Amino acid sequence: MSLKTKPGAVIFAKQLERMATFYSEVLLLPVTHADGDHMVLESDVFQLVMHAIPRQIADTIAISDPPAIREETPIKLFFPVASLADARARAALRGGQLNPSSHEWTARGFRACDGHDPEGNVLQLREPAP
């Protein structure tokens, strides 16, 4: 067993498979492990764990359609993508949304845009700046 670990994040999800599919397809991260209560998406340098919220708690959570954006949280995850335009299209197909291109900005060698996943969690995607 290697003692080296990858940096990563855990997202707790009411709809495990829907959320894992969203992140897998938008970020182009393959699912490397799946069982009844979590799915692992992974690149060579990062691991994103989707963890199911226990049923008794999940049943008390309502996700509207479209989802209410959870902006009142102290954490926003950001992820690299090759193309914001391509990621925007993939997000829309999987129940999330990336803000319009008019909301993009450039800083420190990347172009960024905020959006949200199918459960309303705010995220930011970044592509290399020209």
TrEMBL record:
It comes from the Bacteria. Transmembrane segments: none annotated. Residues 11-124 form the Glyoxalase-like domain. InterPro entries: Glyas_Bleomycin-R_OHBP_Dase, Glyoxalase_6. This is Glyoxalase/bleomycin resistance/dioxygenase family protein.
